[in-house]
Amino acid sequence: MAAARRLDPEAVTRRLRRHFERHRGGWLEGRGDWPLEVPLHPPTEREAGRDLAGVRAWIAEWQGWRGPGEVVWTERAWASLGRQRVPERLRLQAPEQIGDWVGEGERWRRALGRAERIAAEFPALAGHLGRHFDWLADSLDTELERLTAVLAELSRGVAAGLYVRQLPIAGVDTKWINANRARVTELLRALLDAPADRDLWSLTGLRREAPLLRLRLLDPALRQKVGGLEDLTAPVEQLAALALHPARVFIVENLQTGLAFTDLPGSVVFMGQGYAVECFGQIPWLRGAACWYWGDLDTHGLAILDRLRRYLPEARSLMMDEAILMAHRALWTIEARPRQEETLARLTAEERAVYEALTEDRWGKGVRLEQERIEWGGAWRKVRETSDR
What pLDDT sits at residue 4? Predict the structure, then answer.
């Protein structure tokens, strides 16, 4: 086994910097065993004999070192070199000393002081602040004041029935809440001892903005029912209340794809919802229509299709099969973050086979066919052919 290389102050700094970055959150929450000792790996007699000048320079470097912590020295009795006093290990008593060593002492003290201040006001948060080290270390004092005020007010239920902009908290507006929502939500869960799946609205009773859907009516007869309007964007419940009874409904992932649709008897098209497809289960007039979903032919597009079928079990896919994928090989792109999850149970056998092939990179790494890359003339013919099915 190769001997461990002796550590000089520069090497110790590199090692402590990695250690600080890895453990500072836990230390902020009171974890860690102290003192921390870093072995300096002094040489054996044989190693010293082979590089006496280097060992002497190493000893001199530690003799001249001035910094946090304590260097523990030991004496070695070597037959060929006599008695030698060598640095054996570095002993550090607290995280502050590691912070000072790696140039993070000021940030550590600021983060610790703020964490202690929050924990004094909200004892339940004492063990939940470590992952917010950077924010605690670098934010302005006014940001800390806003955070504590928000936690205090929201935890006692003042937000029930209000929109964010109505919160009676000085200096806090929708932009601040949106920028800090993940942090506020996580800390509120800990403060209220709430399950991990609770979001900010369910934790506080804040009113949600009504989700909007964009819908185009592709049939003049349907447009007459809404005063001749063709392109509608409205809350789900308002669209659900319309007296529409289309024969066909298209749900497309890409906005411009939906805008490219031209008149089609008895048809409407929804666009641009991504994964937010639960709203379609709230529209009663969809249940009697033939519903078609056309998304990107990639793992996420097929996952959205599977999710849609929770709410529209009879929904069919359009241009999302292996034949279409193979016919457009020259137009493939790379899916940067393919979805990896359990089997999508609501896909058909054919759709599931495509999904599994994509996740297994059977046709190449991250194969993806975006719907807008399919030549429009051919795609529109496929859309029109749905009337025959």
Answer: 61
CB 237 within 8 A of CB 172: no
Q: How sure is the predictor about 16, in pLDDT bands with cuts at 50, 70 and 90? A: very high
> Could you tell me how far CA 27 lies from the centroid of its own chain?
24
Burial code (b: 16+ CB inside 10 Å, e: under 16) for 150-171 equals: bbebbbeeebeeeebeebebee
Token pair in block for residue 246: 């289309």
**C-alpha distances out from residue 174 to 135, 156, 160, Å:** 19, 19, 16
**The amino acid at 101:** W
Tell me the C-alpha distance between 23 and 217, whole Å.
Answer: 57
Contacts of 263 (CB under 8 A, 6+ apart): 218, 219, 220
What is the value of pTM for the model shown? 0.66
Where exactly are the structural domains of the chain? 9-101, 139-204, 212-388
- The per-residue pLDDT of the chain, averaged, comes to 92
Q: What CATH number was assigned to the domain covering residues 212-388? A: 3.40.1360
Report d(CA 38, CA 19) in Å as an integer: 11
pLDDT digits (tens, 9 = 90+) for 127-179: 999 999 999 999 999 999 999 999 999 998 888 899 888 988 888 989 999 99
- By 3-state DSSP, what share of the chain in percent is helix, strand and coil, each rounded to 5? 50, 15, 35
Does an H or E element contain 189, and which?
helix 174-192
Among residues 241, 249, 245, the alpha carbon closest in space to that of 311 is found at 249
Per residue in 309-347, pLDDT (tens digit) is 999 999 999 999 999 999 999 999 999 888 876 678 999
Q: CA 353 to CA 91: how far, in whole Å?
A: 59
Closest among 293, 374, 364, 288 to 328, alpha carbons compared = 374
pLDDT of residue 1: 37
- DSSP for residue 79: T
